[in-house]
Amino acid sequence: MIETAADRQAKAAEKVKADQKAAAEKLTTPQTSPPNSPYSGQSEEDEEVLKNLEKLKNRGKKPAAKKEEPKKPGPSKKGKEGRKWDLGGKAADAAVLDYSAASPDDSKITAETEEDKKFYEQNVSS
């Protein structure tokens, strides 16, 4: 039999109608299965497994930090600072604090130590 153009158009139209009818049936009658069956969408166990997988993925990552800028009190100096002693004194106080030079009171101290030495020699030697 020889196929004509009209026959081809009729077959194509029938095919289109059959496809539309099949698509409509799929939409109106969804396939459902009982809960917790292996063919259902997701069971409670699957949800738990998915949560655990998500935790495992995020284990090595740091938590998302908030993008708040820390408040700084002002410009701070970097590096070490010199120690400041409470009773450190100043360069002007150096003359008062210098005990290396002999003072007039030192002559009395040396005379007393000489007397002590003589007394010690007399008592201990005899």
From TrEMBL:
<protein>
    <submittedName>
        <fullName>Signal recognition particle receptor alpha subunit N-terminal domain-containing protein</fullName>
    </submittedName>
</protein>
<feature type="compositionally biased region" description="Basic and acidic residues">
    <location>
        <begin position="105"/>
        <end position="120"/>
    </location>
</feature>
<dbReference type="InterPro" id="IPR007222">
    <property type="entry name" value="Sig_recog_particle_rcpt_asu_N"/>
</dbReference>
<dbReference type="GO" id="GO:0005785">
    <property type="term" value="C:signal recognition particle receptor complex"/>
</dbReference>
<dbReference type="GO" id="GO:0005047">
    <property type="term" value="F:signal recognition particle binding"/>
</dbReference>
<feature type="compositionally biased region" description="Basic and acidic residues">
    <location>
        <begin position="65"/>
        <end position="87"/>
    </location>
</feature>
<feature type="compositionally biased region" description="Low complexity">
    <location>
        <begin position="91"/>
        <end position="103"/>
    </location>
</feature>
<feature type="region of interest" description="Disordered">
    <location>
        <begin position="1"/>
        <end position="126"/>
    </location>
</feature>
<dbReference type="Pfam" id="PF04086">
    <property type="entry name" value="SRP-alpha_N"/>
</dbReference>
<feature type="domain" description="Signal recognition particle receptor alpha subunit N-terminal">
    <location>
        <begin position="11"/>
        <end position="115"/>
    </location>
</feature>
<dbReference type="GO" id="GO:0003924">
    <property type="term" value="F:GTPase activity"/>
</dbReference>
<dbReference type="GO" id="GO:0005525">
    <property type="term" value="F:GTP binding"/>
</dbReference>
<dbReference type="GO" id="GO:0006886">
    <property type="term" value="P:intracellular protein transport"/>
</dbReference>
<feature type="compositionally biased region" description="Basic and acidic residues">
    <location>
        <begin position="1"/>
        <end position="24"/>
    </location>
</feature>
